[in-house]
Structures are given as structure tokens and as C-alpha cells.
Design a protein that fits this description.
The structure is a single chain. 30% of the residues lie in helices and 23% in strands. It is of the alpha+beta class. The chain folds into 3 domains: 142 residues, OB fold (Dihydrolipoamide Acetyltransferase, E2P) (Beta Barrel), CATH 2.40.50.100; 73 residues, no CATH class; 217 residues, Chloramphenicol Acetyltransferase, CATH 3.30.559.10. The strands form 6 sheets. Strands 11, 14, 17, 18, 19, 20 and 21 form a 7-stranded mixed sheet that branches. Strands 1-8-6-3 form a 4-stranded antiparallel sheet, with no helix packed on it. A 4-stranded antiparallel sheet has the order 5-4-2-7, with no helix packed on it. The radius of gyration is 29 Å and the shape is elongated.
């Protein structure tokens, strides 16, 4: 028998929420086969097993929050029989364990913090072995924990914590899971709310008491102005909130703006776009901007640096990893193109397309979301002219791209229609001065206005 524990998933990731269990008891799995799908604060990832074997026991379910190092499942060499192994080992022993008295039972808090799984299995075994009726109550199993009510043990630690926060008595909750196991949804239903983390007392009584009303529309809180709805944050939204708040509070932002005449660039993009399409990608403005920025960062190293406040040092990175902000239905995600300065336009187009697609599907790897040294965010597909993008800590700058617009530009003694691209550069004023930002921006503009300086291969 071997226990598979949740491995480290990436930098600063200590836990995640199970969104799907990909195996069942009795399955034979191979090494590196995904066994659970986990939502972290960054993305949804598939967690592979580190060993091969037969699944003897699964210790998590959908909705559980699991920490790094926590046991996910138990593997053995042979498939389990109809009854779980622990149920068969000591069926006659429960009567001997009825001796402990309630006075010897551990405190309720200590019981709630204990691992529930072994007790739950024994309780479920008792339910299976005894017929329904007055004698079906699993007294032996109840005595195993000092006479405490066994239903308290039929819930994961995260569910018990939720019940305490919402003021729900688990003894009053009817579990919908196997063996009467209580889920987070059961707790929320008992509280009169659905997918909320607030006590049911705050829900309007007419909504909580009307049969079926909870499913038709979520219970609403109210204040003196009217009703309002609470929506729990997703893992991605929580991560965005935390990182943006920290960046805004710690980095003194300044935003530099400029125009780039991309009339010739658009011709270049349409002409050479077919070569990129042959490689299975699209030559977009974002891809071209990433290419130009990658070259600029080698000429202006302070824009590719981190600030070490504690040691009062500037860390100049000798590698160029550019994050590309992607708008997904789950929130903003920023996959990273590693080694962007060493890739051609075609290679960048393929990589940016792959990362964006994986981000939208929430199947992106954790390592693809880490290690960025500069970020590009393009809102041109939506519209607008100027905006002030927020720097992704610990980076020193971020470039915002807006929608290109046709403008009259004075050239050769007359006004000519030119396609102008608005650019917004936010930078960390602790290590970058305004003059440096202006020079960096002008270099970007001139490079975008002379697209033939860039080679596809």
C-alpha cells in the first residue's frame, strides 16, 4: 500500500480545490496518469500520480480544499474487493470498543480537527452491514471516538470549518454523499443559501422558506436601500485581487503614453501573415509588440529588472520572459513566453497562440504562469485609447496596447490618413526615471513604424 500525497504545484501555491476526481476505487493507474483536477489561485491543473498501482481508497471529493502534502488516494498492488479493506479487517471488534464512556471522549473541537477518513469508512461499513431500523445505528463505531455522534465525522475538515463559519450545526445536516457524508453544498443548503459563505439568518425569510425558490434565484441580502447578491470569488479572481492590491500599494506607478504610426506595420502583418498561418498560428499585433519589446528590453535593462527593497538592490535579469495578459471567462490570466528574445515572429505567434488557448481552457501548466520579467496587455480588441495598466509585482514595467485608429497626420506638406496605435507604459518610478521611460517608448514606436527591421525567421 502506498499513499499518494498532493505534490508541490508551483511557487507560492500551497493548496487547491478539487474540481474533479478522475479515477475511482478499483482503477489500475499508471505513473504520471492524472488522478484529480485541481483549481489553484492561478489555474485548473491535472495532478498526475507519482506511482502505478490499483486505487484502494480515495480520500478527497469534488469541492474539497487540499493542502500540499495531504493524502489524495491510497494505491495497492491488487484491486480491492467489493468491501473496502478496512471494513473486512475487524468486523467483530466494535463491541469491544463500546467501553469508553462519554466522559473520556476528546473535546468536540479536537474531534473536528481529526482526520475523518478512517472513521468515516468504519461508519460506512457499519451502515452497509446492518439493516435499516432501530438496531442499524452503528454504536460500535460511535464508541471508537468516545461515544461522540458519528455524523460529525462524516465531513472533511474544510466542510466542518465552513459549518462553523456559517453557524450550522452538523448534527442537523443530512449528508448527500456516500454513507451520509456531508458536503459543502449540504451545509450551504442547511443555512438557506447557495454558494455563499454567510449565515442563513441574513437571507430574506420569504426566499428561504419558499420551496424551490433557492434554485430559481439566489437568496439575497438586503440593506436599507434594497437587496443585493453575494458572489464568491473564484481562485483566479482571488489571485488577481491579491497581486493587484500588493502591486498598487508597494509600487509607485507612472504611466507614459505615445502614438505609433502602424500603417506600414499593418501592411507587413497582412503580407507575411500567410507564412505564419502555415505554421498554424496568427500574426497578430500582440505578437509583433512582444517581439519588439523583447528586443527593447535588451537595450534598456532596467525595464527588465526587479527591485530588492530589503537589500536596496536592483536585480537586472539576463533573460527575457514576457507575460501576455489573456481575457478569459474565468478572469484575467497572464501566461508567460519564456525566452521571448530568442524566438522569431513565427515562433512567438505559435507560442502566444498556444498559451492563450490553454489559458482560456484553464488547462495551462503552472510553470507557464511564472517567471515573467515584463508584461504586455492588449485591449485593442475591445476598444478605447489610453489606460494605466498596473504593474505585475515584482516586475518593473508593463505595456498597454489599445485599438489602432485612423488619424489625419501632417506629412510632406499635407494631411494624410495614418493608422495610429495608442501605447501606455506604466513603470516603477523607484528605479526608472521619466526620461528613461520616454526613451524606451520612443524606441518601441520607431521599431513598430519600421517593421522590416524584424525578421520572420
Amino acid at each position: 500500500m502506498a499513499e499518494f500525497k498532493l505534490p508541490e504545484l508551483g511557487e507560492n501555491i500551497t493548496s487547491g480545490t478539487v474540481t474533479k476526481v478522475l479515477v475511482k476505487v478499483g482503477d489500475k493507474i499508471e505513473k504520471e496518469q492524472p488522478v484529480v483536477e485541481l483549481e489553484t489561485e492561478k489555474a485548473v491543473v491535472e495532478v498526475p500520480s507519482d506511482a502505478a498501482g490499483t486505487v484502494q481508497e480515495i480520500r478527497v471529493k469534488e469541492g474539497d480544499t487540499v493542502n500540499v502534502g495531504q493524502v489524495i488516494l491510497v494505491l495497492g498492488e491488487e484491486a480491492p474487493e467489493n468491501e473496502p479493506p478496512k471494513e473486512k479487517k475487524a468486523p467483530p471488534k466494535p463491541e469491544k470498543k463500546e467501553e469508553p464512556t462519554p466522559e473520556k471522549a476528546p473535546p468536540e473541537q479536537a474531534e473536528e480537527e481529526a482526520a475523518p477518513y478512517a472513521g468515516e469508512k468504519a461508519f460506512e461499513a457499519g451502515e452497509k452491514k446492518k439493516p435499516a431500523g432501530p438496531e442499524a445505528a452503528p454504536k460500535p463505531e460511535r464508541a471508537e471516538t468516545g461515544g461522540k455522534e458519528r455524523r460529525l465525522m462524516l465531513a472533511a475538515p474544510s466542510v466542518r470549518r465552513l459549518a462553523r463559519e456559517m453557524g450550522v450545526d452538523l448534527q442537523q445536516v443530512k449528508g448527500s454523499g456516500p454513507g451520509g457524508r456531508i458536503s459543502a453544498a449540504d451545509v450551504k443548503a442547511q443555512a438557506g443559501k447557495k454558494e455563499e459563505a454567510k449565515p442563513a439568518e441574513k437571507a430574506p425569510k420569504e426566499l428561504a422558506t419558499e420551496p424551490g425558490r433557492e434554485k430559481a434565484s439566489p437568496p439575497l441580502d438586503s440593506d436599507k436601500y434594497g437587496r443585493f447578491e453575494r458572489q464568491p470569488m473564484s481562485g483566479v479572481r482571488k489571485s488577481t485581487m491579491q497581486h493587484i492590491t500588493t502591486a498598487w500599494e508597494t509600487i509607485p506607478h507612472v504611466t507614459q503614453t505615445d502614438w505609433a504610426d502602424v500603417t506600414e506595420l499593418e501592411k507587413f502583418r497582412k503580407t507575411y501573415g500567410k507564412r505564419v498561418e502555415a505554421a498554424g498560428a496568427k500574426l497578430t499585433v500582440t505578437v509583433i509588440v512582444v517581439k519588439v519589446v523583447a528586443e527593447a528590453l535588451k537595450k534598456f535593462p532596467r525595464f527588465n529588472a526587479f527591485v530588492d527593497v530589503e537589500n536596496e538592490e536592483i536585480l537586472l535579469k539576463h533573460y527575457v520572459n514576457i507575460g501576455v495578459a489573456v481575457d478569459t471567462e474565468h478572469g484575467l490570466m497572464v501566461p508567460v513566453v519564456h525566452g521571448a528574445d530568442g524566438k522569431s515572429l513565427t515562433e512567438l505567434a505559435v507560442e502566444v497562440g498556444r498559451l492563450a488557448q490553454r489559458a482560456r481552457e484553464r488547462k495551462i501548466a503552472i510553470e507557464d504562469l511564472q517567471g515573467g520579467t515584463f508584461t504586455v496587455t492588449n485591449l485593442g480588441g475591445i476598444g478605447g485609447l489610453w489606460f494605466s495598466p498596473i504593474i505585475r509585482e515584482p516586475e518593473a514595467a508593463i505595456l498597454g496596447v489599445s485599438r489602432a485608429v485612423m488619424e489625419p497626420v501632417w506629412m510632406d506638406g499635407e494631411f494624410k490618413p495614418r493608422l495610429m496605435l495608442p501605447l501606455s507604459l506604466s513603470y516603477d518610478h523607484r528605479i526608472i526615471d521619466g526620461a528613461d521611460a520616454a526613451r524606451f517608448m520612443r524606441w518601441l514606436v520607431e521599431a513598430l513604424e519600421q517593421p522590416m527591421r524584424m525578421a520572420l525567421d
